[in-house]
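User: I've been trying to design a sequence by hand for this structure and keep getting stuck. Would you show me what you'd pick, starting by listing the structure so we're on the same page?

Assistant: Good idea, let's start from the same input. This is the structure you sent:
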């Protein structure tokens, strides 16, 4: 039961990290 939850959390964390990284890189390039 806990495995799907862990995978979902991991995927969500990766997506959030990618978005944050992309925004940070864009901000750096824009600045």
């Amino acid at each position: 039961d806990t495995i799907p939850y862990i995978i979902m959390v991991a995927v969500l964390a990766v997506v959030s990290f990618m978005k944050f990284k992309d925004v940070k890189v864009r901000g750096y390039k824009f600045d």
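That's my pick for every position. To get oriented when you compare it with your attempt: The chain is about 95% helix and 0% strand. The chain has a mean pLDDT of 79.
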